[in-house]
Design brief:
The complex is a heterodimer of chains A (582) and B (403). With 582 residues, chain A is an all-alpha fold. Chain A is 72% helix and 2% strand. Chain A is built from 24 helices and 4 strands. In chain A, the strands form 2 sheets. In chain A, strands 1-2 form a two-stranded antiparallel ribbon. Chain A is globular, with a radius of gyration of 25 Å. Chain B is an alpha/beta fold and 403 residues long. In chain B, helix 7 crosses helix 15. Chain B is globular, with a radius of gyration of 21 Å. Classes of the chains: A mainly alpha (582), B alpha/beta (403). Chains A and B meet through helix 17 and helix 23 of A and strand 1, strand 2, helix 4, helix 5 and helix 9 of B.
Chain lengths: 582, 403
């Protein structure tokens, strides 16, 4: 696997000193930002105008505050906001605490490495598929109750308990935590590469700090800035999630995001003005929540400094190790059980309460849908691969440009890359759709890939940026000294050495694309059916057998690239192990 | 292509402009329409939540491909409003042709809304050859959609009437009027619910309850006003206030739609459900979605009925082919298959006495389905109240119960 340094020949040396080439590379960062920001700015504008009453297609030609008046008078609003904030912030806090506690208490243990291995695939399972499985798992007539009924509980009919769609939104919070913890944990692992974890811990240990306290005091303060943006993305996502909320949150009233979707879909088209105002409100809430989190960071940081300076050595952290490890294990089990429930439903004919397993089985559904699934898998895979490849190209171009010109990406640059993840989808998708229609790109492959790229690119960039920047530059320098051109160094040295993180970033991008629902619907103009659009469409019909089938295939397809990406051997001898995902 | 579309628009509108019951004649240019339709692709935006309906539409696709050389593609929507939103975005972007939606499955509020915003092509419906078979006399809702005249902007597809579903294994005497519902729920707390308005089945349940509780039923055909709404609906809110604590989950949350409620019935979380399709129970039993012991019934004094339609957006790309498909959907062959309870079980919009004897015999020979009521048992159809009642009922329901 090692890149053949010997082959960097005289020919390469000549090429390196040959004619100067126009530097296309320099255009890549600008291109990337254009790809990113143009649609979001246009999209936000397309929402902002109706929010103040301007949408000529619906006869709105005067700017005014009427949509806001209607929004603030909506009877559902107070409860919807409360539900959004409790479930969204609750899930964010819980996910961050679980991840930090687990990293602090269990780093370096075998449990840690095992779970680490399980988590990447969990990341690939779409939110909707997890939510569909969880809804069946947790329902009063669901799997968990069936395991205990009626022999232990005495419930011959399902109890009238709100275990899903509960008024407090706890089921939604659990669902979010199941999906956000793997993401945060992987981002933390990736960031660990930028901080000298082992060295810091060795020093802390030599000074007598307990393993957990040492991690919290010596590693976390330097690690946290690296995972700040991913945490903000989790906050934004949790506050604006649609698909999980539809399945796990109560419906009267729902959290803000499903409420907005209902308003955007209201047959009375005038409700759109109010919905647009609501979408802007949602954006403001996300901004406020992130600002509040930032404030809390400052306060906690001050307090922590006192705590760190206090010099307490702390104990072994055994109890927290068990608690945090147990929680993560529980989350993994929940996700796998959800997946298993979907798989069982896909081969069930009849499966009523209180049967623990289906009472009648059938493969008919698989046969019936085989042809259609084939076409859907093809579209989903082609779209995911195209979007992921475009994202890889742009990302590698940006990173290579940065390295060649000795640039340092500021935090502001990172913020820009994160914009599509921080701005709630609903607040710019309608405007984006108008932009695409205006440009004649809606319903076409280009518009569709572009809309996916908005969400794929940030994840690909984040997966790849760190391994790329951390590649020991002495390899490149040696190759240059042997006469290789920058391009040759890139293709023959850097890329082969980065094969694993590149493949992993591709897998992440593919999974992100495969899970997109609203962007596919809005930009695809209904011309492109993917596994996800089809699964959500069928979910409206509440036939668990069909939903289970589609949710299962929808989960398996994005897993494939992960499975294929894993066996590529690490380039051990040449570089530090790639840190993007493992 | 664009020229032909414009021509067709003109032709269809001149032919169908005088909208009255007796002018449903075949337009002179139908063969031309069929010729123009050949080779076109129709994107049929239809709710995609039902496997059997999707299968039915796939069959329609095979038939129009064979007969007319039309490619039919179903865009499976989670919500019809997604397609309305897309047409709206196209209008916002200044598009007037080459739109992405060719045919849309629609009725009620979505239709009223698209009609009011001039988002629809036509009139075309009464110019379709098979339109003459439609039972406009006995099924007035084929021309008046939620009291809004269709004006030829949508073509009828199927009939709907509210029926209630119950499991005979658990319930022997289901409630047949609003007073009995309250008594039944008192005796069986937590075993009934209804979809949350503004889901159309949920909103229809409110209107159905209003019919059962209002003093003057005739008033519901007139617009609701600030003057008459409060007095007319006071008994309804009083009834709901008493009913809600006795519902599933204490009336704090409601299923999203009738399909979700059917799942609750199958799960045994509730004992009574409702549907807008009289054949729903039979076909769900046939598909293994409900136990074979489920039966349907209607309320004393009748239940609300309506019609569902297909319409063509103003900027549709394949208007000719969309019209040919709409016409095929009205053919006795397609309507017969649609009514077959083992395939879909959706009642026909056609008049039996307008069919030729062979077709009529096929309809008569159709099995009813194990849980489906005969037309006589279905009883009188109540007309949809004026849409202003629904709008106000939904708003007031939101104010009272959606907090």
């Amino acid at each position: 696997m090692a890149p053949p340094l010997r082959q960097v020949s005289v020919r390469g040396a000549l090429a390196a000193h040959g004619r100067p080439q126009p530097d296309l590379l320099k255009a890549v960062p600008a291109l990337t930002l254009a790809v990113f920001l143009a649609p979001i700015v246009a999209g936000l504008l397309g929402t902002l105008l109706p929010a103040f009453g301007y949408l000529p297609a619906l006869g709105g030609t005067e700017i005014g505050l009427d949509p806001w008046r209607r929004l603030l008078l909506a009877p559902e609003l107070p409860a919807a906001l409360r539900l959004t904030l409790t479930s969204g912030l609750g899930a964010s806090v819980a996910s961050v605490v679980i991840v930090i506690a687990f990293c602090a208490a269990a780093h370096g243990t075998r449990l840690f490495r095992t779970l680490e291995r399980l988590l990447a695939p969990l990341l690939a399972i779409p939110h909707a598929a997890v939510a569909i499985g969880l809804a069946f798992l947790l329902a009063p007539s669901g799997w968990l109750v069936r395991l205990l009924s009626p022999w232990a509980t005495g419930w011959t009919t399902p109890p009238d308990l709100a275990t899903v769609q509960d008024p407090l939104g706890l089921a939604l919070t659990v669902g979010l935590v199941v999906k956000e913890v793997p993401y945060l944990l992987l981002m933390t692992l990736a960031a660990s590469g930028q901080v000298e974890v082992k060295e810091s811990l060795a020093i802390a240990r030599s000074l007598g700090y307990g393993s957990m306290t040492g991690w919290l005091k010596a590693v976390l303060p330097r690690l946290y800035p690296q995972i700040r943006l991913p945490i903000y993305a989790v906050i934004a996502y949790s506050l604006s999630v649609v698909d999980m909320a539809l399945l796990l949150a109560p419906a009267t009233p729902p959290p803000l995001a499903p409420l907005l979707l209902r308003w955007f879909n209201d047959p009375d088209l005038a409700t759109r003005f109010c919905a647009a105002a609501g979408a802007i409100l949602q954006l403001l809430i996300v901004i406020a929540a992130i600002a509040a989190w930032r404030g809390a960071e400052v306060v906690l940081g001050r307090l922590a400094r006192v705590w760190i300076a206090g010099g307490g050595r702390g104990g072994s952290g055994q109890a927290i190790r068990i608690a945090a490890g147990g929680t993560i294990l529980l989350l993994v089990v929940l996700a796998l059980a959800a997946l298993a429930a979907n798989a069982l439903w896909s081969v069930a004919e009849r499966w009523r309460y209180p049967a623990i397993l289906p009472t009648e089985w059938a493969l008919a559904r698989w046969q019936h849908h085989a042809g259609e699934l084939g076409a859907l898998v093809w579209t989903t895979a082609a779209l995911g691969a195209t979007a992921a490849l475009c994202a890889l190209g742009l990302t590698l171009g940006c990173l290579e440009n940065e390295q060649r010109h000795g640039l340092h990406v500021s935090n502001r640059g990172l913020w820009l890359i994160y914009t599509p993840l921080l701005v709630p989808q609903m607040s710019f998708l309608f405007g984006l759709q108008v932009l695409l229609v205006g440009a004649g790109l809606d319903g076409g492959w280009i518009g569709l890939v572009w809309s996916h790229l908005l969400f794929v690119l940030p994840y690909v960039f984040l997966s790849l940026a760190d391994p790329f920047r951390r590649l020991d530059e002495r390899y490149a320098r040696s190759a240059r000294c042997l006469g290789a051109s920058s391009n040759r160094v890139f293709w023959r040295i850097k890329l082969p050495m980065l094969r694993r993180p590149v493949l992993a970033a591709f897998a992440v991008g593919f999974a992100v694309s495969a899970a997109q629902y609203l962007p596919t619907l809005f930009a695809g103009a209904g011309r492109f059916a993917t596994l996800t659009t089809e699964a959500v469409g069928l979910a409206a019909g509440a036939d668990r057998r069909v939903i289970g089938l589609y949710a299962l295939v929808q989960s398996l397809l994005p897993l494939l690239p992960f499975v294929l990406a894993v066996p590529v051997p690490r380039v051990r001898r040449l570089g530090r192990p790639a840190q993007a995902l493992r | 292509m664009r020229r032909i579309s414009a021509l067709m628009l003109l032709a269809a509108s001149t032919v169908a402009r005088p909208v009255s019951a007796d002018t449903a004649t075949t337009p002179l240019d139908w063969p031309q329409t069929v010729a123009a339709a050949r080779g076109q692709t129709v994107y049929f935006n239809a709710w995609g939540g039902s496997e059997r309906i999707n299968d039915y539409i796939a069959w329609v696709g095979e038939r129009v491909a064979a007969d007319f050389g039309i490619t039919l593609k179903q865009v499976k929507l989670a919500d019809t409003a997604d397609a309305v939103a897309r047409v709206l975005a196209e209008k916002t972007a200044g598009k007037s042709s080459g739109g992405s939606v060719d045919l849309i499955w629609i009725n009620g509020e979505n239709f009223a809304s698209m009609k009011a915003q001039a988002l629809l092509f036509g009139p075309f419906a009464e110019a379709l050859p098979n339109n003459r078979l439609v039972d406009t006399a006995a099924k007035p809702t084929t021309r008046i959609d939620f009291t809004v005249p269709t004006d030829g902007l949508e073509s009828p597809w199927g009939m709907a009437q509210i029926v209630f579903l119950y499991d005979t294994a658990r319930v022997t005497q289901p409630p047949r009027d609003m007073a009995q519902f309250l008594a039944w729920a008192t005796a069986h707390p937590g075993r009934f619910t209804y979809p949350a308005p503004p889901d159309f089945t949920g909103s229809t349940f409110l209107k159905q309850a209003l019919y059962g509780l209002v003093a003057d039923r005739a008033a519901l055909q007139q617009p609701a006003t600030d003057g008459n709404f409060d007095a007319a609906t006071a008994p309804l809110w009083e009834w709901l206030d008493r009913l809600h604590p006795l519902l599933w989950r204490g009336g704090h949350t409601f299923p999203q739609n009738d399909q979700a409620q059917r799942q609750l019935l199958d799960d045994g979380e509730i004992d009574i459900s409702l549907s807008f399709n009289p054949g729903e129970a039979s076909s769900a039993i046939a598909q293994g979605l409900l136990p074979p012991t489920v039966r349907t019934y209607v309320l004393d004094g009748g239940t609300i009925g309506n019609t569902h339609f297909v319409a063509i957006p103003f900027d549709a790309t394949a208007k000719e082919a969309a019209m040919v498909v709409a016409d095929f959907l009205l053919s006795p062959e397609a309507q017969l298959r649609k009514q077959d309870p083992s395939l879909w079980g959706d009642p026909t919009v056609l008049a039996m006495d307008k069919l030729d004897p062979a077709d009529r015999a096929k309809f008569t020979a159709l099995p009813l389905g194990v849980a489906t009521l005969s037309p006589a048992e279905l009883g009188p159809v109540l007309l949809e109240p004026h849409p202003s009642w629904m709008t106000r009922l939904e708003a007031e329901w939101r104010r009272r119960y959606a907090k």
